[in-house]
Task: structure prediction
Amino acid sequence: MRSPDSELPIAFEDVSMSAGGVTILDHVSLTIEAGAPTAIIGPNGSGKTTLLRAAMGLIAPTQGRITYGGRTDVAPIKRALVFQRPVMLRRSVAGNLRYALRAASVPRAQHDARIADLLTLVGLATMADRPARRLSGGEQQRLALARALARDPAVLLLDEPTASLDPAASKNIEDLIRAVGARGIKVVMTTHDLGAARRLAGDVVLIHRGRVVERAATDAFFHSPQTGEAKTFIAGDLLI
Result:
């Protein structure tokens, strides 16, 4: 799994998005480069998930543009998005991965080996034949990650990957994110968990009311926040 140069950086250039007369992203300029995971934080409704969907190419800007390695015409073949509540197909664990491999046009002769590798990576090797919908929440999240990795992405977009998980399951996901990053895959994750952002991210982006209000290396962000919004959010106070 390697990150091809053509996919990165992902650059938001004065991007705005509106729906039903409501502005969701407001003149966002942001460059996502190769390297350690990027954590996107902010209160509910700040535009974090919309930003991920836009980076994936699922929605188009109302204004501005998004480029991938300097181009706008890059198909989302090497990007993968895992939603906060991923849907499991009515198949076995291995069947979910086989479906993803077919969708990614991986030759059938490679399926068994790829499935074995992916299940080992996410710690589900003993559950290949188990119905996916009978897995625990943490196990389903790991399967969703494996399913996303089946397409060998350069960029992995994760929407609240540890939301509603217990501490043990959250640690499993964090360990997996580290393993994915070690393979050269750029991880961009939204999270409400400031501890996870501290532990995993190389840089942090704070979004509030659809705007990027602060972006910094993780240590600098948490130790020397530059904006009142960042100071408020880090302190655990309500950011309205």
In short: The CA atoms of residues 136 and 169 lie 9 Å apart. The chain is about 35% helix and 25% strand. The chain has a mean pLDDT of 95.
